[in-house]
Design goal:
Helix content: 25-40%
Structural class: alpha/beta
Strand order of the largest sheet: 3-2-1-4-5-9-14
Number of strands: 16
Shape: globular
Strand content: 15-25%
Length: 350
């Protein structure tokens, strides 16, 4: 059994489920969480009392040193997530995500850490997903132009001939092309951890989560995921407001599957050192997801497709899960419609 395993951000949506999964397997768990005002007001009651608790800011060197003392493995989940509100968030994102990671890595090096390090990364590192042109094969879709988006032309076009593109599953060796501040910080986190691994020999695995949903999601905030935003709208008597035309493809993966991917990466007989997509392998449109959760909460209502768009959003991005299955031994098992019904019945986190 592992112990203690440090889960940074362990009071959060995903982190708390990782805590549950580790405890269920008999491991000791230590949680570090700064309780950001945008996420929590206090230690949540859903966090298992068996986990050792440290409240503190990872950017504080003394807090980091205390958190890593004697740990056998680290699941690094602490981060500001989502698109935020505007560019004014940039220093907060970089501070919590990148500086926090750097302080953590420095503390691990000082402690002589020789366990495994697993990082919560994200599909946002890819920017737009993978596309194929009938004439030119696989192409790199450039950022969409505001004029096209204003006119309702949402699909990326081939940069060589202007033809329509066919979205493809994104493998882990796709070029990284972050298109938001949050995405840029996730790329930086991956590079920082990879540099640490090369310098120290510590096994490092990055898990690139796709669109995670499930119980304990936060309420509707600029930092919440789309499933949470739709759920919040329904709870307040409204309906999901779907941007663009709703045809954007994503891979919605249940939080219990994400937690299991972390425990697999931490406990495989031999560490597997690379980045892996963590997804269901079954892409669905945003409108499909909006309809599924609406059916579960208020079947008499219907989502509204607004045609609005946001800078930083991408059109299609969904996972190739072959590497995670073949090399990590992870496959998602939670069923989508059942997961949406569970989310619909779950209390909203303040």
């Amino acid at each position: 059994m592992l112990g203690p395993v440090l889960v940074t951000g362990g009071a959060g949506f995903i982190g708390s489920h990782i805590v549950d999964a580790l405890l269920e397997q008999g491991h000791e768990v230590r949680v570090l969480d700064t309780l950001l005002a945008s996420a929590h007001r206090e230690r949540p009651d859903y966090l298992d009392q068996r986990a050792e608790w440290i409240e503190g800011d990872l950017r504080d060197a003394q807090v980091a040193a205390r958190a890593v003392a004697g740990v056998s493995a680290v699941s690094h989940q602490a981060a500001m997530v989502g698109l935020g509100t505007d560019i004014g968030d940039i220093a907060d994102y970089v501070g919590h995500n990148d500086l926090g990671t750097a302080i953590l890595l420095r503390a691990l090096a000082a402690a002589g850490f020789d366990g495994r390090l697993v990082l919560a990364s994200s599909m946002v590192v890819y920017g737009e997903g993978l596309y194929a042109c009938a004439e030119h094969g696989v192409v790199h879709a450039p950022p969409r132009r505001p004029g096209d988006l204003d006119a309702g032309r949402f699909e990326p076009r081939c940069p060589a001939c202007g033809a329509a593109l066919e979205p493809q599953p994104v493998p882990e060796d796709a070029p990284l092309d972050p298109r938001s501040v949050y995405a840029a910080t996730k790329v930086a986190q991956e590079h920082l951890c990879a540099s640490f691994a090369r310098e120290t020999g510590v096994p490092f695995t990055a898990l690139r989560y796709h669109n995670v949903y499930g119980p304990r999601m936060p309420r509707d905030t600029p930092y919440a995921g789309v499933a949470s935003i739709f759920r919040s709208a329904l709870a307040s008597g409204g309906v999901p407001r779907v941007f663009e035309d709703g045809a954007q493809l994503r891979d919605f993966v249940h939080v219990r599957d994400v937690a299991r991917a972390n425990t697999v990466a931490l406990t495989t007989p031999e560490p597997v050192q690379r980045a892996y997509n963590v997804g269901s392998g079954s892409p669905r449109s945003i409108l499909d997801m909006a309809r599924a959760i609406t059916r579960a909460v208020a079947p008499e209502r219907e989502p509204v497709v607004t045609g609005e768009w946001r800078g930083g959003d991408v059109r299609h991005v969904f996972a190739s899960v072959a590497a995670a299955a073949d090399r990590l031994g992870f496959r998602a098992v939670e069923e989508f419609d059942a997961g949406m019904r569970e989310l619909a019945a779950a209390p909203l986190r303040a």
